[in-house]
Design goal:
One of its GO terms (molecular function) is ATP binding. This is Vitamin B12 import ATP-binding protein BtuD. It comes from Paenibacillus plantiphilus. By secondary structure, the protein is α/β, with parallel strands linked by helices. The protein contains twelve helices and 13 strands. The chain folds into two domains: 243 residues, P-loop containing nucleotide triphosphate hydrolases (Rossmann fold, 3-Layer(aba) Sandwich), CATH 3.40.50.300; 67 residues, 2-Layer Sandwich (Alpha-Beta Plaits). Bound molecules: adenosine-5'-triphosphate. The site of adenosine-5'-triphosphate has 12 residues, from strand 1, strand 2 and helix 2.
């Protein structure tokens, strides 16, 4: 059975409409008006044990609201959610023992006590057996490089140190599911790498299911076998990254390595279906972007080979970042493009 089951999940907020100016404020006091905002709109998906899934969408798409329903903080307006056999908002305590949560912007650690004592408190709160606790501390501190600041008070940690400590704390009780909201936000490349390695290791060792929201596409490419994309509360795509690229992007880039001096044409190559063209004389390379539905890479290559000496060439599919940006911008694809 799938570890996460979400069926037609919906959350509608009623939020006050605020009047403008002093008169509006007085009017609001007498007659408060509300508008409805459907933050999550009939979303359905299932996630299997051990999957690492990227839950993506632009700002305000409904990601945090979905996660809050999965962790049991919010009660859905309609639809169903079941996590490891439990309805989160009805069985909050049981659900909490099975999950780990990290919100990149907010820490769950106790500000004034050292990291090591926070971990001891976690052991007590989650009733973690001593042998498991020791094993996890050894493994996690090693992979995340926490030893150097184990005895430092949380408020004195840098952002990267604090995030590593947060991750460690969230995983000490061996949760079967981990929700990560922007876990690498604001971190340098070295710490990002450590965190990604850690997540992959825990996932491989323990079959931990990971649901990750991030705006960092390199997180997605390094970690996620599958992505779910939402926009305006609706699911737009559910599948693997390669499928995302092939279904949603027809753009490719061809890079030609040519002789510096011999490039001899006027640059008018739109008839080849090329949409973007740049020549870099310092490296002797030509970058050509085209829509593969309208252009033939072989014809482009042949055309250039007739006019200059081409030493080498490569073809690159669109970067996932570009594909996702295009999907975010194209809100009309919302329902039409939904893929299960
Ligand atoms: N408690 C609330 N009351 C009213 N509206 C809310 C509430 N929480 C969220 N919303 C609205 O629901 C929509 C979705 O918000 P949500 O925080 O889920 O988006 P998000 O995808 O997590 O965005 P971001 O990437 O910016 O964190 C937004 O329009 C937001 O203003």
């Amino acid at each position: 059975m799938s570890i996460i089951q979400v069926d037609q999940l919906t959350k509608t907020f009623h939020r006050p409409i605020r009047g403008t100016g002093a008169l509006g404020a007085i009017r609001d006091l007498i007659n408060r008006r509300y508008e409805e905002k459907t933050a999550v709109d009939r979303i359905s998906f299932t996630i299997e044990r051990g999957e690492i899934v990227g839950y993506l969408g632009p700002n305000g798409a409904g990601k945090s609201t979905s996660i809050k329903m999965l962790v049991g903080i919010l009660v859905p307006t309609s639809g169903e959610v079941r996590v490891d056999g439990v309805i989160p908002y009805k069985n909050r305590k049981e659900n909490a023992s099975k999950i780990g949560v990290v919100f990149g912007q907010r820490s769950q650690l106790w500000w004034d006590i050292p990291v090591s004592e926070t971990f001891e408190l976690m052991k007590y709160m989650y009733n973690i057996p001593t042998a498991d606790f020791k094993r996890n501390i050894e493994l996690f501190t090693d992979v995340l490089g926490i030893q150097d600041f184990m005895h430092v008070a949380v408020r004195q940690l840098s952002l990267g140190q604090r995030m590593r400590a947060d991750l460690c704390a969230a995983l000490l009780h061996n949760p079967s599911i981990v929700y990560l909201d922007e876990p690498t936000i604001g971190l340098d490349v070295v710490v990002k790498k450590k965190i990604r390695e850690f997540l992959l290791e825990v996932n491989a060792l323990r079959q931990t299911t990971i649901l990750l929201t991030t705006h960092d596409m390199s997180d997605v490419e390094k970690l996620c076998s599958r992505v779910i994309i939402i926009n305006n509360g609706r699911k737009m795509f559910d599948g693997d990254l390669e499928r995302l690229k092939s279904d949603y992007s027809a753009d490719e880039t061809m890079i030609l390595h040519v002789d510096h001096d011999e490039i001899g044409f006027d640059g008018n190559i739109s008839h080849l279906g090329v949409t973007d063209f740049t020549y870099h004389p310092e490296s002797g390379s030509i970058l050509l972007r085209y829509d593969k539905r309208h252009a033939k890479p072989a014809s482009i290559l042949a055309w250039f080979m007739e006019r200059t000496v081409v030493h080498d060439f490569e073809i690159k599919p669109a970067e996932v970042e570009d594909v996702i940006r295009d999907i975010y911008q194209d809100s009309t694809s919302c329902e039409l493009g939904e893929v299960q």
